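User: Structure please.
Assistant: Input sequence and predicted structure:
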Amino acid sequence: MKDIFQNSEETTENEEPDTIYTPGYAVSSSLNWMRNYRLKVYYHTDKVDTKNSSNYYETFSQEKSTDRVLDLSDFRIQFSVRRCAMYYPNQAVISVYNLSAQTESNIISEGYRVILEAGYKNVNNGQIFDGTVIQCNRYKQNGTDFVLNILAIDGDQFLNEKMCSFSYEKGQTARQQVQNICSSTSGAVTLKYASPDLDKIVMSKGGAVYGQPKKTLSDIAKTINGTWFVDNGELYMIAYSDSAKNLPGNRKTAVELSPSTGLLGNPQQVNYGIKARCLLNPKLMPYGLIHIKNEYITEQMVSVGSYSQGITFPYTLDPNGMYRICSITFTGDNRGNEWYSDVTAVNQGGNMMAMLTDSSYTAN
């Protein structure tokens, strides 16, 4: 299988690199591991096409000339981005060092939105966060450096500000309700994926919906034994029984994690799956697939309680080494050592529901 580290001339014109890596190329050149990053603060909330195309960079250049976007990539940047395939909102905490007072004031008063891209040059670079700024604060560090902290949430308007209000008739499906929620919130998010199981849920009588959309979405997700989440401004409503081949984008293809492709240390088995750390990889995404050979994973010891509690055995590892990502945290420092992805994942076949309904579970 061809891998993402191959030379461009080895790939045919219409062929896209697969997200499954071939270890032989991963360590062939240190150039493959040169960091790449870009942090942009937008003074508007219009939709931005962030694909790596000439149109994107042309639009970005035009916006810079009209003061609609600010590129902070030349400054020292530290970030922690958490993305979840659960009811937790995606969020980013970004620290930018030694901006001018005027630039800081502009961001605090006018910065509506941030887009963060990170990875490695030429081979594995992409967007890891797109969200709305909800808070900024400024402080002095070590007596010399001024730091601006930016807190942003993905889908903040949809999750915390917008209200949905509509009525429905007898015979309407749950899919139509999800579509109505998106349309009644003035396009705060777009519906990226809706499970086919939503068509099987039919309203037995008419009614009305009013309130924050997240409560209604949570109720609908429970009826199909699934989850919903907002990722990069797009809404996903997924049943745990949905086939991977029906999921959009790269979520249907597993990302190979091994020492040759950036896996760091030994992944640890936890109650519901595994936790792993690797070099920063933007191809990892909520509810996406990863493949890790079980020989790399340190198994969890059984838990021995009192006589009445007995012995608690952990869930078994997936025999094929396929795991579904529940949450992922990207951490980075463009002038330091941090440049990691921390993943929590479960067997692709599914202890996901048990984990989500367990009040003791906390996402990364």
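The chain is about 15% helix and 35% strand.
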